[in-house]
């Protein structure tokens, strides 16, 4: 049966030999395909892999370019809101001129130490944006990264990584994880190297800025030290003049509070008395007396009596009670207004008293100077006539010498003027002093300079009463002073019997306005007819430098050389003259600058040519009723020498030492002449102590006459 089965199967195909051959041929074909196909597959795989690598690299470059362009555009758009248009334009130009950065470009262009790392943040962002292939699940891009051996940077990277991973490492067959690590380490190491030059430059710039700050700080400290040297107003008893926090600016708060309480208590006491509340009235009076005793003469809280807190508290309780019982806003306002008016009247009265006393002190001769004048006068008239003459009288009319005119009735003041001039003169023998005084002091003035001659200089003393040509028929001032109206004005008009009332014209009752010595300055050519130039000096000045240069000053055809005194809005013509009068308003400028008497260089030739004395007489006659100006010599001088005065440099003549306490010390010391104009003359007790030493150093206080009259510094 088996055999029959095998035969059946073999013969069932319609011929057994042909069937076997047909089966054997396909088997051989399959076997050859299996043998050849691996070789074909390997050959095809190499070409396909190469093409795929090229396509993948091209796609990667395109994607990189797109990503880089997108990031650059985004960065520029974000910076436009911060940077100026010029900066963004320069960034765009630079971007268009530069190629895309890549490792190949870095390989072709070697790194330099001068590279700027302004793109550091973007690069670091690119590094951190690289995703690990394990996170993305794709390794195609990482397998396509290749580093050629001819690339210096790629070779460096390969060498570095071979050392790190072992001798068998292969960059072309490494896993994507290793490639990611290698790229990250390489880029970070190179950016660290690129960052060093910038850090060095930043450190250098920081050091320069620190040095500049230190230099600026040193300059500020030096300037502060220089400013502190000029500070001489240290307050004694204070911790430090610079520490304001250690000094209570309101040191009189309690004093003022107690005085305010006293004022209110007075108001309520008047109201209480008017309303017949006698108990409260008496209590208020008692508290007022107690508070007044506690305050006393205190000007600061530290001066108050130790019981002042209790007095303040007690007064506050009484005022609270009075407020509850007596407060009426209208009545209190009326009372306070009345008290204010009364206080204002008291202030005016005290001001008049002060003016009166200051004027009285200014025109009063101190006992020591009066004593000196009397003793010198007695000794002078005891001298024989032949001993009363001064030497070198031939110099009195020599126009080639330096002549001074000094009109004074004060022996001590005149001696300071002469001594200070001679002591500071380069050639004392060329200086000539013409002194004119009154009959009362003529003997004293002569005796003093006979006993104390001014070295080699020439001096001559005259009596104004000996000028017979100076009479009322020629001089308008003398005629006016002899008139009944002027006597009434000076001695009886508006004269009050009390000091508090004072006198509105007290200033002009000063004897100097009644003396012809004060008006003699308008008659210099008549007094010294043979001189060409003369320097006029007041007796309240001190000479500190040689004055001979004044004779060389070109007055430009003017008569008077003087220092102007006008400031922003004061010491101008409208201060001295009555511009409501048409004679003044039509002929003079109210804003014209005033000038000072006290040191004036006069051209006597030009004086005579322009008839200055005649001009003075004309204006003086027009002012007989004092409608143009008050008394004095400066207003008529401004009118007489109007547009005929040459301004001198201010350093020649510094004024104000007789009334202003704020003159700068350097200004005084650099001045050729300093002037004590004002009431605080240096020989009076009213003199300002800070200025007095400039005057007293020219007085010999050990002189027998001065010591005998008890004149001291």
Automatic annotation (TrEMBL):
Residues 271-301 form a coiled coil. The keyword Transmembrane helix applies. Keywords: Coiled coil, Glycosyltransferase, Membrane, Transferase, Transmembrane, Transmembrane helix. It comes from the Eukaryota. Pathway: Glycan metabolism; pectin biosynthesis. InterPro entries: GAUT (IPR029993), Glyco_trans_8 (IPR002495), Nucleotide-diphossugar_trans (IPR029044). This is Polygalacturonate 4-alpha-galacturonosyltransferase-like isoform X1. The gene is LOC109705938.
């Amino acid at each position: 049966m088996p055999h029959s089965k095998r035969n059946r199967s073999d013969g069932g195909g319609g011929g057994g030999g042909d069937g076997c051959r047909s089966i054997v041929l396909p088997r051989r074909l399959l076997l050859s395909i299996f043998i050849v196909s691996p070789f074909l597959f390997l050959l095809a795989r190499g070409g396909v892999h190469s093409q795929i690598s090229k396509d993948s690299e091209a796609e990667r470059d395109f994607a990189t370019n797109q990503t880089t362009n997108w990031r650059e555009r985004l960065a520029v758009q974000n910076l436009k809101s911060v940077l100026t248009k010029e900066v963004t334009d320069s960034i765009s130009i630079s971007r268009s001129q530069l190629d895309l950065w890549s490792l190949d470009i870095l390989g072709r262009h070697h790194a330099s130490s001068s590279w700027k790392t302004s793109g550091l943040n973007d690069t670091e962002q690119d590094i951190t944006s690289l995703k690990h292939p394990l996170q993305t699940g794709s390794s195609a891009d990482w397998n396509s990264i290749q580093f050629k051996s001819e690339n210096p940077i790629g070779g460096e990277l390969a060498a570095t990584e071979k050392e790190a991973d072992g001798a068998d490492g292969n960059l072309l067959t490494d896993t994507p994880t290793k490639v990611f690590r290698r790229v990250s380490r390489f880029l970070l190491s190179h950016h660290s190297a690129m960052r060093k030059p910038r850090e060095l430059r930043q450190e250098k710039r920081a050091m320069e800025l620190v040095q500049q700050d230190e230099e600026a700080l040193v300059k500020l400290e030096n300037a502060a030290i220089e400013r502190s040297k000029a500070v001489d107003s240290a307050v004694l008893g204070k911790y430090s003049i610079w520490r304001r926090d250690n000094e209570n600016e309101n040191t009189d708060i309690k004093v003022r509070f107690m005085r305010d309480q006293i004022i209110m208590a007075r108001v309520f006491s008047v109201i209480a008395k008017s309303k017949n509340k006698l108990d409260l009235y008496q209590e208020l009076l008692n508290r007022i007396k107690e508070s007044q005793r506690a305050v006393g003469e205190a000007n600061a809280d530290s001066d108050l009596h130790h019981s002042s807190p209790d007095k303040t508290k007690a007064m506050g309780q009484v005022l609270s009670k009075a407020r509850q019982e007596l407060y009426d806003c209208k009545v209190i306002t009326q009372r306070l207004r009345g008290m204010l008016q009364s206080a204002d009247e008291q202030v005016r009265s005290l001001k008049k008293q002060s003016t009166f006393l200051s004027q009285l002190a200014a025109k009063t001769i101190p006992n020591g100077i009066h004593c000196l004048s009397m003793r010198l006068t007695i000794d002078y008239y005891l001298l024989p006539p032949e001993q009363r003459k001064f030497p070198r009288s031939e110099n009195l009319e020599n126009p080639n010498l330096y002549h001074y005119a000094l009109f004074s009735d004060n022996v001590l003041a005149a001696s300071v003027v002469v001594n200070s001039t001679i002591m500071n003169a380069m050639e004392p023998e060329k200086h000539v002093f013409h002194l004119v005084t009154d009959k009362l002091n003529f003997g004293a003035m002569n005796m003093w300079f006979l006993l104390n001659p001014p070295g080699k200089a020439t001096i001559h003393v005259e009596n104004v009463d000996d000028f017979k040509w100076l009479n009322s028929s020629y001089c308008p001032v003398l005629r006016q002073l002899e008139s009944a109206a002027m006597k009434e004005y000076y001695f009886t008009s508006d004269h009050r019997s009390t000091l508090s009332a004072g006198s509105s014209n007290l200033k002009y009752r000063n004897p100097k306005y009644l003396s012809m010595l004060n008006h003699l300055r308008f008659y210099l050519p008549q007094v010294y007819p043979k001189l060409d130039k003369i320097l006029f000096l007041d007796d309240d000045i001190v000479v500190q430098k040689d004055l001979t240069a004044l004779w060389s000053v070109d007055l430009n055809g003017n008569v008077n050389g003087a220092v102007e005194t006008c400031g922003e809005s004061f010491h101008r013509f409208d201060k001295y003259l009555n511009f409501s009068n048409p004679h003044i308003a039509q002929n003079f400028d109210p804003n014209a600058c005033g000038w000072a008497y006290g040191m004036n260089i006069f051209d006597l030739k030009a004086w005579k040519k322009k008839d200055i004395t005649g001009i003075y007489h004309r204006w003086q006659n027009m002012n007989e009723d004092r409608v143009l100006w008050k008394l004095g010599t400066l207003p008529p001088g401004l009118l007489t020498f109007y547009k005929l005065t040459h301004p001198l440099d201010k350093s020649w003549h510094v004024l104000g030492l007789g009334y202003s306490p704020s003159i700068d010390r350097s200004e005084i010391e650099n001045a050729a002449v300093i002037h004590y104009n004002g009431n605080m003359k240096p020989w009076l007790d009213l003199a300002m102590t800070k200025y007095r030493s400039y005057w007293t150093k020219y007085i010999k206080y050990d002189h027998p006459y001065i010591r005998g009259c008890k004149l001291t510094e």
